[in-house]
Amino acid sequence: MKHFRVAATALGLIALMTLPALAQRAGGGGGMMGGPAALLSNKGVQKELKLDDSQVTKVTKIADDMRTKQREAMQALGDLSPEERREKGMALNRSMSSDTNKALIEIFKPDQTKRYHQIRRQVGGADTFSDPSVASELKLTDDQKTKIKDLLSSQQAQMREIFATIQDDREGAMKKMAEMRKEIKDKIVALMSADQKKTWEILLGEPFDYVATPPPGR
User: Fold this and answer.
1) pLDDT for the residue numbered 185
2) Based on the structure, what is the number of domains in the chain?
3) Would 82 be classed as within a structural domain?
4) Could you tell me if residue 101 is inside a domain?
5) Which has the closest alpha carbon to 148: 127, 165, 167?
6) For the chain, which end, N or C, has fewer CB atoms within 10 Å of the first or last residue's CB respectively?
7) Secondary structure of 41-92 in the HEC alphabet?
């Protein structure tokens, strides 16, 4: 059971960028619930996007479907090694993210789509830089991509260490993860040129105070 919980936690974190994520606040409720499903069902995000009742119903259905697929995936990933679990989990979430984005085009207005992706990038932290579309917008060089990959690998290693203590001290583990994720993100931003930093600010848009909430049924 403990092995399953660790696998579930890992997949939940991976899901934010494609992507994994903690609440932006170290003590924010909900911790590891910043993936697309969490964003779409989050009341604060829905309000920020100015969704009408019909849109809320549709995105809530998408979020519920995503959670079902993730639960099924957790069962399949539970017996794999950490590295295999990470790779397959990321591939799964890339596929789910792509399908979700296609569905949202039919639901959101252009300005809502733009803002949704800005919020995803803000909440996604360092993991956002593994998104090919972000790398393309920033015009990252091969050297930057290599350094970013190394930094993200370091983040994964540190997360694995924190996972070992998360059941004993959830609040402390969340704080450590939030601090570590910010440190990695800042190091990546420091690699950028002045023009890339300007583009990055545009990709983020106006700051959004994201407060994670537990998914339905928890």
Assistant:
1) 94
2) 1
3) yes
4) yes
5) 127
6) N
7) HCHHHHHHCCCCHHHHHHHHHHHHHHHHHHHHHHHHHCCCCHHHHHHHHHHH
Cα distances (angstroms) measured from residue 181 to each of 8, 175, 186, 198: 19, 10, 9, 21
Which residue type is seen at 192? M
- pTM for the predicted model, two decimal places: 0.76
Cα(16)–Cα(32) distance, integer angstroms: 9
Cα separation, 136 vs 180, in Å, equals: 25
Residue 144's region, left for phi above 0, alpha for psi from -120 to 50, else beta, is alpha
Cα-atom radius of gyration of the chain, to the nearest Å? Answer: 17
Report the pLDDT value the prediction gives residue 68, as an integer from 0 to 100: 87
User: Given the structure tokens 């170290």, which residue do they identify?
Assistant: 26
| Domain presence at residue 218 | no
Q: Do the domain assignments include residue 216?
A: no
Range of the domain at 162: 2-204
Amino acid type, 26 = A
Residue with tokens 């609040």: 171
Tokens of 93: 């979430």
